[in-house]
Amino acid sequence: MQEEIFCPECGDFTEHVTVKLRREHLVRCEVCGTVHPTGLERARLAPLRVIISAKDASQRRTIEIPAEDLLKVGDEILVDDGVGDVAIVEITSIELEGGKREEEARAGDVETLWTRAVDEVVVKVSVQRRGKTTSYNIPAGGDETFAVGDVRTAGARRYRVEKIRLRDGRSPDRALAKEITRIWGAAL
Question: What is the pTM of this model?
Answer without folding.
Answer: 0.72
